[in-house]
Sequence to fold (229 residues):
Amino acid sequence: MSDVSANLESVEQKIAVACHRANRARDSVELLAVSKLQPAATIHAAYRLGQRDFGENYAQELRDKATQLADLTGIRWHAIGPLQLNKAKYIAKIAYAFHALDRVELAEELSKRRVGPRLRCYLELNLGGESSKSGITKSELDAVLLRISKLPNLEVVGLMCLPPLGKDPESSRPFFRSLREAAKEYGLSELSMGTTYDFEVAIEEGATIVRVGSAIFGERPSQATSQGA
Ligand SMILES: *Cc1c(COP(=O)(O)O)cnc(C)c1O
Fold:
């Protein structure tokens, strides 16, 4: 197992440096530890080190881990992966936030099933025009926001993107910038952007939450040994 403590410290350091470079306060960026496919014990270790926000891709895995780790007070589960309609109920019941909202139908289901305070949602934008990726296009944003904003149990707090993999982290910058501009246009304050690969660039471009997995937990165990989506 990799050294979660040293890794967290190193990521923290890089976040601090990026914030400084961008003239931002350290507390203007949250670190979301992406724990998909990592065992509960690993999450527990990060929790003991003070980490509270964890990101999971698969609905059932999130549900099972939340159950296993129910005694960790103040832990916050973020669902960050594509979500099937029939699994929305798990996220609606447990998650603190959902980062991959990509269609009205899913928003309606989440709102209908939500238990507790309004679910914080990030609308996922597909900025690279990749047909293989989820997310709505910029031109759909207006209409989608209008419909989702009427739902009682959701709150659209911001936008999210996962840029196409470029030749280096700098390749992500135009996408991050574009996300920031779109959020500004619609008065949305939160930007979920940046992974292990490019979180420092994301912070420079205004990310309010970065989703970092492998830099904290090391390489992920293969999905075959875990339970799929
Ligand atoms: C897995 C994942 C991450 C984290 O990726 P790392 O490269 O491990 O930092 C971030 N965002 C999404 C949507 C992911 O699926």
